[in-house]
Amino acid sequence: MKTEWIAVDWGTTALRAWAMVGGAVVDLRHSDRGMGRLQPSEFEAALLDLVSDWLGAEATPVVACGMVGSRQGWVEAPYSRVPCKPLTTTVTAPTTDPRLRVDVISGLAQDTPPDVMRGEETQIAGFLALNPSFDGILCLPGTHTKWVHMSAGEVVSFRTVMSGEVFAAISTQTVLRHSLDTQEMDREAFDAALSETMTRPETFARDLFGLRAADLLTQAPPQVARARLSGGLIGLELAATKPYWLGQPVAIIGAPALSALYERSLRAQGVICEQADADEVTRAGLHAAYLRIQGIAS
Amino acid sequence: MKTEWIAVDWGTTALRAWAMVGGAVVDLRHSDRGMGRLQPSEFEAALLDLVSDWLGAEATPVVACGMVGSRQGWVEAPYSRVPCKPLTTTVTAPTTDPRLRVDVISGLAQDTPPDVMRGEETQIAGFLALNPSFDGILCLPGTHTKWVHMSAGEVVSFRTVMSGEVFAAISTQTVLRHSLDTQEMDREAFDAALSETMTRPETFARDLFGLRAADLLTQAPPQVARARLSGGLIGLELAATKPYWLGQPVAIIGAPALSALYERSLRAQGVICEQADADEVTRAGLHAAYLRIQGIAS
Lengths: 298, 298
Hints:
- The structure is a homodimer.
- Chain A is α/β, with parallel strands linked by helices.
- Chain A folds into two domains: 5-118, 2-keto-3-deoxy-galactonokinase, substrate binding domain (Nucleotidyltransferase, domain 5); 160-277, 2-keto-3-deoxy-galactonokinase, C-terminal domain (Nucleotidyltransferase, domain 5, 2-Layer Sandwich), CATH 3.30.420.310.
- Helix content of chain A is 38%, strand content 25%.
- Chain A has helices at residues 43-51, 120-130, 163-173, 187-199, 203-218, 222-240, 242-245, 256-268, 278-293; strands at residues 5-10, 15-21, 24-31, 60-65, 80-81, 90-92, 100-105, 108-110, 115-117, 136-140, 145-151, 154-161, 250-254, 273-277.
- In chain A, the strands form three sheets. A six-stranded mixed β-sheet of chain A has the order 3-2-1-4-7-6, sandwiched between helices. The first copy, chain A, has a five-stranded mixed β-sheet with strand order 12-11-10-13-14, with helices on both faces.
- In chain A, a hairpin with a 7-residue loop joins strand 6 and strand 7 (100-105).
- In chain A, helix 4 runs parallel beside helix 6 (222-240).
- In chain A, 51% of the residues are buried.
- The model of chain A has no long low-confidence stretch (mean pLDDT 96).
């Protein structure tokens, strides 16, 4: 089937593209040529390498979100200030190949406290397209987890907590790496650490070295140490973001395994939450942007 | 002057040796051949490379502390369990050169909560040798800061907080590295972050990404971001170690710049504290161990 338009999610470490007809996927590709590995002049070639056989003689519309729109990206798509709708402006990227017309979606920024997002605004728009009446909190867990307060179709405020990146730095770059050599997590240890840091957040930093010492002294299992580090960080995050989730419905949008940890943690606080499919909402957000660019929807 | 004995502080990343006559230094050397870069069979040669011209025909006593006594070191000097005096046992390392006799000082361990130290026990012993009547808290800031409760010449309990290593991991391995490119720290920003995390520890993790966002949105100066990260981590540490320092005299033993940050932070809580010279207490501890090994003191 002929590609009508191309949806692109172009982050720091990865590039994903979907060949689309309306809101339906007809093909998909991905590559590891993320923004972090490309100079501004290299984006067009990187995209063509991945999708050129989807293109016809006429310009195919491409709609892209993510770090591709940052200052170090293909073209800078300036941040829009919240409160605002998640989809605001797009910027057309410079291209030389007449078969391409590429529009990049702006990220969102907040002045107080200072915060930014790029890519998540598109997922938020997609979630709203699929759930138009949703009011409440969106939680987008990842390297930089976003907590987003939605009301009447607008992003009211948001907060980024970098628990994922801190987990990666501590678990690979400190002495704890010797005691975390597993991908498994002990559920009870996760729950206990979560509960402890939610009650006494200051214990998080104090108890870190104990994970190493317990390994040295009693060969404590790595799946316990890994679960305690994860549970401790998520507990610290939930303690700090309580004004977001307390008494609110929460929808979680992220990779399934990490989303499940957040769901488990929020449910332990009595929060009503659900998971949404991250790929589906990303495509729905890019589709909503495509319809706006084509003048089909507002 | 002829070397009577050799004092050695052999950690993970560095080897330092002093040629001694009694308690007086007659020469000193250092090298970057720490435990982390050596196989067990390579320690003797590394030491000889550094100090062979200090040696006479007879065996010169060498007293060593630090990671040289770990399982991956020259010889394992098993941990002694607290409560106990800081100097407990020594283990003689295997040597082939008749000009050397090397004794390695045991570290200390604690079962509940699990914790270990290697090297700091020697500094503690040296501090006690210089301040025999001290009862109170020793704070040894560093990669792994130790908080030590001393009473009647014994280590009653201790706690390791790895703020230094977490600072290094976050400031070099996460997105914040782009916003911390300075060695300067803004004092007001340090004090404010310290106070905030002492009052509301959970804000530490939540506010991290704001350091990056403030840089992106308002070009906030890196010396403010660096100070906030440092103050936040030390605030989290002080909040968690309050049972150690509250209402107690504290002596700080560490590198001068880091010790000054801890002193500033503790004084802001009304704690009476003083700094001790880390090199001097290390040598005094090694000297106390030397006297015991020679049967000159108990």
